[in-house]
Write a structure and sequence with these properties.
single chain, alpha+beta, wza like fold, 2 domains, six-stranded mixed β-sheet, 13 strands
């Protein structure tokens, strides 16, 4: 199969709005959060995550929100409010607006999930967001990037070894891209994504 030198940009990049994938999205700078504590209306607050990833809340002050999932932040806030302020607090967090674009990383990475990206982000940088490759299980010859192009899902498969050696470009990753790192000796992740997206376009190999 002939290879081109790049996977084209997507039709559009992610736009701001309420995020619906509540459990695995990792909060990023400038995201707008709606935070409530059950039964304590005075603590209900909308806050925007600052550039360093922090938010400031009544009673407990500055809290690091950046890089956490919604459940992780809810647990952290409940712990802080329970420390001398509220008995058995029930904290809810909703990402009302995400300013960052986001990329999904699946398969043999150390922390799979959905991560915010800002500015130009390469494949290697995106993988680093997920804690890097799981070197014990990853097949670095088959890194799949799935993207919406010309109204349909298309994808390319990159050999990360060649990217690391500088033999091929470190491709740009865009908002809403899905990056799948296959497990060595297995095509399980590959098959799962193909079965889930039957309309996916022709794969290109790099």
């Amino acid at each position: 199969m002939a290879a081109t030198h790049t996977l084209p940009p997507p039709d559009t990049t992610a736009a701001s709005g309420a995020y619906e994938g509540a459990t695995d999205y990792r909060i990023g700078a400038q995201d707008l959060l709606s935070i409530s504590v059950f039964g304590v209306q005075d603590l209900d607050k909308e806050v925007r995550v600052n550039a360093s990833g922090q938010i400031t809340l009544p009673l407990i002050g500055a809290v690091m929100a950046g890089g956490k999932t919604v459940p992780e932040l809810e647990t952290e806030l409940a712990r802080k409010y329970a420390d001398g302020f509220i008995q058995n607090p029930q904290v809810s967090v909703f990402v009302k607006e995400f300013t960052s674009q986001r990329v999904t990383l699946e398969g043999a990475v150390n922390k799979p999930g959905i991560y915010p990206i800002t500015g130009r982000t390469s494949l290697l940088q995106a993988i680093a967001l997920a804690g890097g490759i799981d070197e014990k299980t990853a097949d670095t010859s088959g890194i799949i990037v799935i993207r919406q192009i010309d109204g349909r899902r298309q994808a390319a498969v990159f050999d990360l070894r060649r990217v690391r050696r500088g033999e091929t470009e470190d491709p740009q990753i865009y908002g809403d891209d899905i990056v799948v790192i296959e497990t060595s000796g297995s095509k399980t992740a590959f098959r799962r994504f193909i079965e889930a997206m039957p309309a996916i376009g022709v794969f290109r190999w790099f």
